[in-house]
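Before the break, one more example. Copy the sequence into your notebook; we will annotate it together after we see the structure.
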Amino acid sequence: MDIQEIEVTINKNGKVEIHMKGFKGDECIIVTKELEQALGGEVDVRELLAEYFEEKNDQNITDQLNLNL
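Here is what the structure looks like once it is written out:
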């Protein structure tokens, strides 16, 4: 299994940046949705990196299906 990392940065003006590593496809959007809601802000810019366009492996799909049951 690949290592997945989430880095949250809050600058002096209160602007929040969330950087994700190791997430494939829409996993990053699913995971950050709860963080975005908890922080109570709106998304100004969402930059999709190359990992977003990579296919998920079968294990990640199985894990996601099990969570949705």
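The chain has one domain: 5-68. The longest strand covers residues 5-10. Try to locate both features in your own notes.
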